[in-house]
Amino acid sequence: MSMIRDLRAVVRPSRVSLRKDGAPYDATRSPATSSAVVDCAVYRDGRRIETETPLTPHEAVRLARRDGGFVWIGLHEPTEAEFSGIAGEFGLHPLAVEDAVQAHQRPKLERYDDSLFTVFKTIHYVEHDQFDANSEVVETGEVMCFTGRDFFITVRHGGQGSLRALRHRLQDDPELLSKGPSAVLHAIADHVVDGYIAVADAVQDDIDEVETEVFSPGRKGAPRGSDAGRIYQLKREVLEFKRAVSPLLRPMQLLSERPMRLIDPDIQKYFRDVADHLARVQEQVLGFDELLNSILQANLAQASVAQNEDMRKITSWAAIIAVPTMVCGVYGMNFDHMPELHWRYGYPVIMGITVVICLGIHRTLKRNGWL
Question: Could you tell me the pTM of the whole model?
């Protein structure tokens, strides 16, 4: 299979690559060490150069410059002291280094001398059995990428967005990996955007569920307007999603349209595919926001209509009760000379008239839909 056909396949599940001794690569950070370096390797002609012991970043740089190829270093939440040595080794710009260490950056693409600095926000869907007003829908992380002629550095923040499986899949495709750091950058961008698509589908299911429940007539045990909290929570999560997607459109367009020395021409055209998928996700996210606004307004309108119906019922019963109240009030006055006060049939006649009037009012109100 050619490199072109394999570009999209690289982010799909595949077998884990093995060392020559048959052991799988371990790209996870060891709990026993405090080092921020998750994995450090040199790739030449698309293949990982095997060493007897794990390489340090300094050793990897020397090996890559001696034998050719490029270095791929992966870090997870490094401190300033841990990253300063690597930054000095590759001549990374201090502003980019500061952003990579501190994190909490919006997606962007910046060029510093002979390197590109790219920020991606990763999105992870949080599984939940039942969605309520306090449920978390998405978790965000960050992946910062430094792309140079002979190096590629990833700095990851957050518990999600591991690149371990992606590195394995790239190592299974030497033809693609031989294109250098730009191929890794494309694979990460494609991997992140494919994650957006999966999360968008899951969020769509949550929105459909809330929408169905809002418009379901006569739900038992559900107070009117109780869905407003869930809708608002979904809007907050969609806003977090939009903050990850929208700013990334411009960097992807630049990577796909503007010629860059650090991006291989054979790889650059495939950033268009990533930008197209990203635009589709953005349309979905914007649609989510508008749909949730409509659902929230409909929910509040339903609550208002229900309150009006309750008030009409209360008013109707108050009108019915007002009749016997008025009669009892009149005949409760302490006057000696009142009509029918000493008449033998006065009580049953007054009670009958009161009941007839109440029944007439009840029938009229029910006919008009007030009861």
Answer: 0.73
